[in-house]
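Lab notebook, entry 505. We have the chain sequence and a SMILES string for flavin-adenine dinucleotide, and the next step in the workflow is to get a structural model of the bound complex before anyone spends time on docking refinements. Request logged below.

Task: model protein plus flavin-adenine dinucleotide, output structure tokens.
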Amino acid sequence: MGGKIRDTDDEYIGVEGRDDASKFLVSPRQNKDHSTNTVLRVWGSTFKPALKKECLRLGVKIFDRVMVTNLLTEDGRQGAKVVGATGLNNRTGEFLIFKAKATILATAGNYSQYLLNTELAGYNTFRSRNSTGDGTVMAWRAGAELTMMESTFPINLGTGFLHTWYAGAGDASYENVPLVDANNKELPIPTQGWKDGSMPGDWRKVRDVLRDGVLKGKYELPFYGDFPAMPEIESRVTWKMMLREESVSRIIVDTYSEAGFDPTKHQLISYQLLEGQLPLHWRNVGKGGLLVDWELKTTLEGLYAAGEQLFSARDHSFCAATGRYAGRKAAQYVRKARKPVIAREQVEQEKARIYAPIKRTSGIEWKELHAGIARAMQYFCGQYITDRLLNMGLQTLREIEEEYVPKLFALDPHKLMRSIEDLHLLAYGQIVMHASLARKAKNELLNFNRIDYPEGGPQEWNQFITIKLEDGKVKTKKLPLDYCGDPVKNYEAYNKDYQGVYRRK
Ligand SMILES: Cc1cc2nc3c(=O)[nH]c(=O)nc-3n(C[C@H](O)[C@H](O)[C@H](O)COP(=O)(O)OP(=O)(O)OC[C@H]3O[C@@H](n4cnc5c(N)ncnc54)[C@H](O)[C@@H]3O)c2cc1C
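Result returned:
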């Protein structure tokens, strides 16, 4: 498609991990000899324009600035075939109706559920501010089955309340930059990770190993990422590729560079230990998402899902691969799918729901509503969970829905979009609480701190809990972990038309 993945201009000859034949830059992380390392440093900033260009070349019609608000179903019935979607243009306020034989949801995860921070960072976590669980809630309202919705995790980066959790010897971006203290004394943080497999910048390790040293006067704060201690080519590739090509940090790199920062000469301050830890009730919803089958089809006919929209999603390679797969399967389905017929009444109902906040000029604005929902999540579905807390949480969210949502107002299309996101966050929170109620066991590994069910053993954990709306009522079920059957046999059975092309020798 034109995304740059090779060092074709020979900018980084000699850098660790560069394969001179292919010109790939293999990340120096993980194993030193790169025998199993599949992580490449790429020119990430070239990807999105390339993707858009390719879509246009293929004749894909793109509706920019349109927030999809809801799915349309046959006869407007919950649980029926999906026949399209509605949208809101966040610049003009225009309402759009899409008719579709097949629909693929790919609105990613939800990174806004537990926190609102617009003043310090402009977002809540380092993910896109648009990731508010819209797709999951749309599918929920349409009657699709979801799973793992009870999983939540403490937020560990990018809230804007912390400058950063790593800088030097950290996770992906700075992984190979050694850390030193204020007197240039090297800190004992292994740049390739700790022996027990934790990331180099794991704050627990850093805290345990370094805090004592600082308190006893062995190390002096602040710490620095010691770029100049690295070979010149390594500091340059880390600064220009690993930081500048990861879109969120590009602006930081450019701002520092304009101000005169030169990684071959200057150290970069690290905020480790200067900043405290984030409270454990500031969380992200975890691995929940749409339940899918071998076609990446959801439990609703005509509805497919891809990327972080799926339960237990992983990062980029997972998202790209599932996107391609879901697209292929949806395209096959379209050939035999019946004509979509839209129920006008459902459209009118959605239009009324979407436009309600612009009928008012005072009351509650989206930020206040979002903050209230986030607080309810923190208090009642946070570090500790019990039946009582979860029921109080559901009651609180219901109160918000009944008392405050009718006061929600928006003065422009952008704020209207944020308001609709809030409505989705409200529904999402309820789903998480219902799913948490259904999972009656504690599991520390999964951060599910059910203190009223401390004994839950493997029999309670070794199954999925699925959740859906049926005739407006919440239904939960248990599903075996291996419901998808044998991966190899099924992949082959479901991809007869495809595997010949890519089958491994
Ligand atoms: C800073 C950063 C660094 C990362 N580093 C790596 C890395 O090194 N390696 C790696 O593998 N992964 C990395 N990831 C993760 C990876 O980028 C994501 O897992 C992946 O891009 C998710 O793909 P997706 O298609 O599911 O969702 P996204 O790429 O998030 O796309 C979802 C899209 O849906 C849109 N959307 C949301 N709601 C609506 C709605 N209602 N209507 C219409 N559109 C909507 C959003 O605007 C967005 O464009 C990183 C992510 C970030 C943020």
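Notes for the group: The mean pLDDT is 89. Worth checking against the assay data. The chain has 13 helices and 17 strands.
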